[in-house]
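Section 3.1: Structural characterization of target chains.
Under the original work plan, the team committed to producing a structural model for every single-chain target entering the pipeline before any wet-lab resources were allocated. The record below documents one such target. The sequence was received from the expression subgroup and is listed exactly as submitted; it comprises 264 residues.
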Amino acid sequence: MSELSKPEEALQDPGKAQDPEEAQLLGAEWGEAASASASSSPVSSSAPVEALSQEAVNKMVANMVKFLLCKYRARKLTSYAELLNTVLRGNQEHYPVVFCQAVECVLLVFGVDVKEVDPRRHIYIMVPSLYLTCDLMQRDGQGLPKVGLLVVVLSLILQNRDHGPEEQIWGALSKMGLYVGKEHSIFGEPRELLTQVWVRDGYLEYRQVPDSNPTRYKFLWGPRAFAETSKEKFIRYLLKVNQRAFRSFPLPSAEAVREEEEGP
């Protein structure tokens, strides 16, 4: 079972009421994310760090990923102090490695970017990659983020000269463990998500290829995708993100998703 599927009872509920300062930061930063990156860590020490097994590190990373995703769904800020005291339980010396790996995971797997909005106090906000708001449109508001998959699909279309042949899209998604006609624990049934949900929401267009026999279809960027982001931003994003690293993170199992949605 994936480490992401192991709930920690002591994880703080991110649904607590915001204080006025937090609400102000959220209001300013959610629509237009802060330019500061969360790649730097507030911990800097020359003291020797106790060696941990890879399993122990993975568990810490998984717990931090779950916590960051809960904050993202609740649209709440978090901080170095909160992550250290709530997730790592005071293991300060391991914070730099765990934090960096967790930030990379939520970006590359779930499409959520961790931004530092207060460098002095190390306060962070979680925002969707490339400012795509598809997760905010989920009817129940409880599912795990799907924006990471939308980024992949829009990228595939862009790399195919703005026209993504259906068979190429399904072939690429199958390498990620998503198959047409098969329910996925996070994304549901891929054909329904791409050809109905994201078409209805305006992120994709699904058109028949003219004069094709047998009939074939292709995907294009939809009007909402153009409104929320741009091809230039996508190109810069793709140059920055190592897709090999993306494939190094396995998607959580159905059990992991159920336990995550039940909350700590």
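The longest strand covers residues 112-118.
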